[in-house]
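Homework help board

Subject: predicted structure for assignment chain

Our instructor gave us this sequence and asked us to write out the predicted structure in token form, then describe one feature. I got the tokens but I'm not sure how to describe them. Can anyone check?
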Amino acid sequence: MAVEKKIPSEEIVNDKFDQATANLLVKTGLGLSIGIVASALLFKRRMWPVTFFTGAGVGASYADAQRIFDSTAMPVAPARRMSKFYAQIIRECDELDKWSRVESFDEKSQVMTLEQKDGSGGSYRAYVDFDREVFSTDIDGHTTAMDTGLSSYLEKLKEICLRMGESWRVLDDIDGSLQVLQPQHPRRHDLWRRVAVGDLASALIEVSPDRYHPKVVFYGPASIAGPLNSRARDLRIEWDGSQGVKDNLERVLGIELPGPSTVYQEDGKIKCGICLSFEDDGNIADQVCTSDQCAQSFHRQCLIQ
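My token output:
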């Protein structure tokens, strides 16, 4: 009976190391070559294709090295397929001269980010998601199938910006002149703000391109919120588009509103009377006891629990 020859462990390790090194050199070189060719022929000698394909080669060789050295390692998932829209988007970027607007390309998520002007002096971002094959943006919160084409999608966003420009200017004015309690990190499609009115009350301000003035509703003790809500009905008649939001509200309501430097979150009445915090999972303490003797704020979820 033949005796099986044992191979020293050092030789096994050396063989695996040689195999992994050769694999690294081949796949990195192949990725670098593809990147250089793609950069020269398709991407106007930009650097990111070289980085992308070289990184892909290094990543593939690293995954192979894990399998070589660890026989118990899980099989590596098959390489991600290239989107059928990839060439189309590249061609449209060339035709529209949008390469200067490319802010980043995330290799892992396969998302290209474009920075666009929003028509109100600000900017927004459009996302080209090659993995999910959809377009998205931070101005409407929706996704659009990639087969509509990048050019058509950007034209749609331009129409949205033209329609929403004045509303965004009003919101920017609110953010810069009033004490905004919520949302703490507003996005372009957040067409509302909750602002402080004092240490006992707050106001919900909603803007719409279909109204020339914001809709304002006050929350707090009845003795404070009641009269303010009655006076807020006059905004429809007395709103002056040449004045800022703060000036309009103070003039019509006859009160002085706190500016952005005033911090009411630390006030005991603004904090939730149960959990003693201002914000809970993104929600502020907006349930106010209507008793003038109490006027304490609570989170809705704290009251339910």
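Reply (TA_rk): Your tokens look well-formed. For the description, you could write something like this. The two ends are 77 Å apart (CA to CA). That's the kind of observation they're looking for.
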